[in-house]
Write a structure and sequence with these properties.
- The structure holds two protein chains of two kinds.
- Chain A is 37% helix and 17% strand.
- In chain A, helix 3 packs across helix 5 (169-182).
- Chain A is elongated.
- Chain B has 14 helices and three strands.
- In chain B, strands 1-2-3 form a three-stranded antiparallel beta sheet.
- The chains are: A alpha+beta, B mainly alpha.
Chain lengths: 694, 391
């Protein structure tokens, strides 16, 4: 045995080194124990939460959206179950999402180019006489070509899915690109309303169709198709910007929310609350079993009862469609006392059910395009026009209250008059002779009201504007619909503002007028124009209805509203929708009576502007007081009519306007007549009148 | 065996007279506490693997343990001192095995680490750990009179760096690190001067900074980018769940969620694949999640027991050769336990070092049991020589 093999049992040196080793071991174990104690005992609960969140996913269970019914309970919008095939965004390759984003940018570029071209054309027109210009033709935007699926695997997937659904793979690709372009990581709806057999087929072969969700969902259905389409609005998946809004607090991604109309206004009652199936998942997000470990029941949305009367609404839509012959227009029928809107329609209209299925960008653009008359646009609350002679009762009230006119004082109307240094005439320069307030309203004398406008201008203080605004014009009426527009009652402040803009704009525009031809103060002529509802004044049909309601109710300005009450599924009231109290304007009753008498004559006495329209109308039972209006616009004459029927039980105010519809008595008055005919269930021919006065 | 009164630790403390001088004296002179710790860990391993994956894997691990325990028992009856004569053979075998893997090995997850030996895949870098202990011990004992010469230390280090570099090629960074730790421990136990350690540490620091900072800039790949990423990801574990930090993050969540007594069958982190490699590198996380602090502490206590017995054997060894071998083995096991558990609890980088006797894998189990067998052999020989039963 080697000597070095033998050694004392343990040397001091080795003992020291073993002690060092032992010390290191002790330290290492101490570190581990300390860390374990921290992780498991001190902060274990926190990690437990993380682990729990890790292992489950909520699969939303869609809540049924509440129905919408009219004032008598007739369904306007309901929900139905339909089987929808969707592509899961997580199963989409990144290349596809990138391609969609690129395509979206290209489309935006094209749309902007078209918009710029339009703006250029408009500016060119600005150089010439504005009045004579024809409407600008809007060039159609060609959609950008859809890129092919970026990966062979995706191409195969689409082809396989297409065979099952009976669709071309290119159609699936187009839908994917179009929808992903809007919201990059949302589900792509390939097809709605597939037969149950197809659903079963796809579900049984899940592994062959990766990322394909096929489930029954609730879709909106519209039993009366385009009835009140703009009022009802439409629904869609909540967008990323909407998710951040306060009104959508607590709404989860993927929820269907109201996008327009009352669907938007009363969304929080209608949408209900989605439930969820809590499923176990593994680290790859795969469900480890189909059996949910938990479930939150969806809470269905509430039913909404509207003040609309489906029958009247239908009558209004039929009337404006037939009489207007496809021209754009709008009508409003409301209760002047409480502001309940009975009918509110806009032409052209659309069938909201197209939003229940995947809608293509081109289709959506078409619904918004001016070329097709912007069917989505609600002209009754957002269509702003000069109101023509329907403004005259407002001028009358202002003049009476401000003391610049008395009902019986006669003024000679020779057919034309000089305002400032410009001649202004009645339509067709027809002389009316001596006219007082009653006959001026009856025959719609422009000269009489030019003089009233000048008189009101001379007393200063913008009294006409003050009265117009007091009666409900030039600001939002507060109706419970989104996108109501304010309109405009021109005055000194407005003119100053536009002058300022003009001064800023012109140097950059080769000194070509941008907004107005000349920079000048608001003047006498402007006020004379306003007095007859001409010029820059901008009024919506709803505002007009509110103004006439105010007159009919002696100064009570109603706040129009469409939502009446929230109901449970069985139609039992749950909550009344509070309607804010009506505002009051102080007007002397005698003045209102005088104006109403003028309106009565205009509709009932021989020679009245709308008397021929109401030929055969039982005025003894339902006394119609109405005013025609014919506003000159660059596109043509805008036809207006507003009527008041102060029936004790069923009072109503109806306003209608038709773009390029000619004189008020030609198209708007017969439309209003038909609405009234339906409301009171009377027989009257409601023939177009021949009055060529404004 | 555990029921035998002879193996009662109390009996041992009473004195040598307690041990009967009957047949198979070597078998009875093994360290029973060490055996107990090993058996305890084996049971923990089997129960854990069975719980988290399936009984088939647990069964195979059971076979590995059975083979390993037989091997360990056989080794314990052999006088380890004889292995000293085979030092060139041992070293040569180690190098051959490692090279064989590089030449013949199958690729699993981007690295060649194993060769197929019959039904099992042999990770030769594992066996190499024990072989290195033996070779280094032999070399140092040969030069025990010249331990303070720089040559001795340098040669020992070079003897280690060569196989370490070879396993780095595979690439198996973890084993290479274990080799380096083994040489440090062997030198330390052999009695190398402190000055040499200071120098080695300085050299090591320089080499590491060279590998991590300078080499990448020169375009030389010493560490693969994923290795560097793994090594540094524990410094910012809550980063991107998609990369190296993800596993660690999930592991920490798993262990933390176990709380005091564990989630038992409720465990989800490790059963639903949130944590990959749950039966190999991250088996400690399974213990932590399923059985909580109690379970994790039990496993750690068994390791502490094992290390304590190994250190005790180191002090008992009848010769320097045995002491150096024991020192290498202690360091090997301690380092692997600390790095692996540290990785599981988020305080050490991810290196792919298995948890000895717990992680699923034949090579690791066999290697560790071989090491345990050597320790037992040292123990048996020490007791025998003290009693003068053996020459």
């Amino acid at each position: 045995m080697n000597p070095e093999d033998r050694r004392p049992p343990i040397t001091p040196q080795l003992a020291l080194r073993v002690a060092v080793l032992g010390g290191i071991a002790l330290a290492l174990f101490a570190v581990i124990f300390f860390r374990l104690w921290f992780l498991q005992v001190l902060s274990g609960d926190q990690y437990l939460v993380e682990a729990r969140e890790n292992r489950t996913r909520d699969v939303p269970v869609q809540a049924a959206r509440g129905d919408i019914v009219d004032r008598t309970g007739r369904p306007l919008v309901s929900s139905r179950r339909a089987i929808v095939v969707q592509l899961h965004p997580q199963a989409m390759p990144e290349e596809e999402i990138a391609a969609a984003a690129e395509w979206g940018q290209e489309m935006t570029r094209r749309l902007n180019a078209a918009k710029a071209a339009r703006a250029r054309a408009e500016r060119r027109r600005g150089r010439k006489n504005r009045r004579k210009a024809k409407p600008i033709k809007v060039a159609k935007v060609n959609p950008a070509p859809i890129p092919p699926p970026p990966t062979a695997e995706l191409r195969q997937r689409f082809a396989r899915l297409g065979r099952v659904l009976g669709m071309k793979p290119s159609t699936i690709q187009r839908r994917a690109i179009e929808q992903l372009a809007v919201v990059p990581y949302s589900s792509v709806t390939v097809r709605s309303d597939v037969p149950r057999a197809v659903m079963n087929y796809l579900k049984e072969r899940k592994e062959k169709f990766p990322g394909v969700d096929v489930d029954p969902v609730y879709l909106r259905s519209y039993p009366r198709s385009s009835l009140a389409a703009q009022v009802l609005g439409y629904v869609g998946e909540i967008g990323p910007s909407e998710l951040r809004q306060r009104r959508n607090r607590g709404v989860e991604q993927g929820t269907i929310v109201g996008k327009a109309g009352v669907e938007y206004t009363y969304d929080r009652y209608l949408r209900g609350r989605n439930g969820a199936n809590v499923l176990r998942v593994d680290a790859n997000g795969r469900f480890s079993s189909d059996r949910p470990v938990g479930r939150r029941e969806p809470i269905p949305g509430r039913q909404l009862r509207l003040s609309l009367d489906a029958r009247l609404q239908q009558a209004g839509q039929d009337a404006i469609a037939q009489i207007g012959g496809g021209l754009p227009g709008a009508f409003v029928a409301m209760n002047p006392r409480n502001g309940e809107v009975y009918a509110l329609g806009s032409m052209p209209t659309f069938d909201p059910s197209i939003f229940a299925k995947p809608i293509s960008t081109t289709k959506f653009a078409e619904l918004n395009s001016e070329a097709s008359g912007s069917p989505l646009y609600n002209r009754a609350i957002g269509g702003l026009y000069p109101s023509g002679s329907t403004f005259k009762p407002i001028t009358s009230i202002a003049g009476l209250e401000e003391g610049t006119l008395t009902p019986d004082a006669s003024i000679n109307d020779p057919g034309c008059i000089t305002v400032g240094d410009q001649p202004k005439c009645n339509a067709g320069e027809v002389p009316n002779g001596a006219v007082n307030l009653y006959s001026a309203l009856k025959v719609s004398s422009d000269v009489y009201y030019y003089i009233q406008g000048m008189n009101l201008f001379r007393i200063g203080g913008e009294r006409l504007q003050k009265w117009a605004k007091a009666l409900g014009l030039g600001h939002r009426t507060g109706i419970d619909l989104p996108d109501e527009r304010r309109g405009l009652i021109p005055g000194k402040a407005w003119r100053d503002r536009i002058n300022k803009l003009e001064r800023k704009c012109r140097p950059g525009n080769d000194d070509i007028p941008c907004y107005v031809l000349e920079i000048r103060d608001y003047n006498l002529g402007d006020n004379a124009n306003l007095a007859v509802g001409q010029g820059e004044v901008q009024i919506s049909p709803l505002q007009m209805a509110v103004a006439y309601s105010t007159i009919a109710e002696y100064g009570r300005v109603p706040r129009p509203h469409i939502g009446l009450e929230i109901q449970d599924g069985a139609g039992r009231p749950v909550q009344e929708i509070p309607s804010t109290a009506a505002r009051k304007v102080k007007i002397q009753r005698a003045y209102v009576d005088a104006v109403l008498d003028g309106l009565r004559r205009a509709a009932q006495e021989p020679g009245g502007t709308s008397t021929p329209v109401f030929e055969g109308w039982p005025h003894d039972r339902y006394s119609v007081m109405g005013k025609t209006g014919t506003a000159e616009t660059p596109q043509g004459d805008q036809s207006w009519y507003v009527a008041i029927v102060r029936d004790a039980n069923r009072p109503i105010v109806v306003a209608a306007t038709i773009e390029r519809g000619g004189f008020g008595a030609e198209r708007a008055a017969p439309t209003v007549c038909r609405i009234l005919r339906s409301w009171y269930r009377v027989n009257a021919p409601c023939a177009p009148g021949g009055s060529h006065t404004r | 065996m555990a029921t035998s009164p002879i193996l009662d630790p109390g009996a041992e403390r009473l004195g040598r007279r307690a041990a009967p001088r009957s047949a198979a004296p070597g078998l009875l002179r093994i360290d029973p506490i060490l055996l107990l710790a090993v058996l305890g860990l084996a049971v923990c391993s089997l129960v854990t693997i069975d719980a988290t994956t399936n009984s088939e894997l647990a069964g195979r691990q059971g076979v590995f343990f059975a083979i390993g325990l037989v091997v360990a028992l056989l080794v314990s009856q052999v006088d380890y001192s004889r292995l000293r004569e085979l030092k060139y053979g041992v070293y040569g075998l180690m190098i051959t095995l490692i090279v064989a893997v590089i030449a013949l090995g199958g690729v699993t997850r981007g690295s060649r680490r194993a060769i197929d030996v019959g039904p099992i895949e042999l990770q030769t870098s594992e066996i190499g750990k024990v072989l290195l202990c033996l070779a280094l011990a032999a070399f140092l004992v040969d030069r025990s009179r010249r331990l303070n010469e720089r040559d001795t230390t340098a040669w020992a280090v070079l003897m280690t760096l060569f196989p370490a570099a070879l396993v780095m090629i595979q690439p198996d960074l973890g084993s290479a690190m274990v080799y380096v730790v083994i040489v440090f421990a062997a030198l330390f136990c052999a009695g190398t001067s402190w000055r040499h350690f200071v120098g080695l540490l300085a050299l090591g620091a320089a080499a590491i900074s060279l590998a991590l900072v300078v080499a990448p800039k020169l375009g030389v790949t010493v560490l693969h980018s994923y290795q560097a990423e793994r090594l540094t990801s524990f410094l910012h574990p809550s980063g991107d769940p998609g990369d190296a930090g993800y596993q660690q993050n999930q592991s920490v969540i798993a262990i933390g969620s176990g709380e005091r007594t564990g989630r038992g069958e409720e465990a989800t982190q490790t059963t639903l694949k949130f944590l990959p490699e749950e039966h190999t590198d991250f088996i400690f996380a399974v213990v932590g999640e399923r059985w909580g602090f109690v379970g994790a502490a039990l496993v750690l206590s068994l390791y502490a027991l094992l290390i304590w017995r190994a250190l005790r054997i180191l002090t008992m060894a009848k010769n320097l050769y045995g002491a150096v071998i024991a020192g290498g083995i202690v360091a090997m096991i301690l380092f692997q336990v600390f790095v692996n558990v540290g990785m599981n609890i988020g305080i050490m980088p991810i290196t792919g070092i298995p948890l000895p006797l717990m992680s699923y894998g034949g090579s690791s189990v066999l290697t560790t049991l071989l090491a345990v067998g050597l320790l037992q052999s040292i123990h048996v020989q020490a007791r025998a020589s003290r009693k003068g039963l053996l020459p």
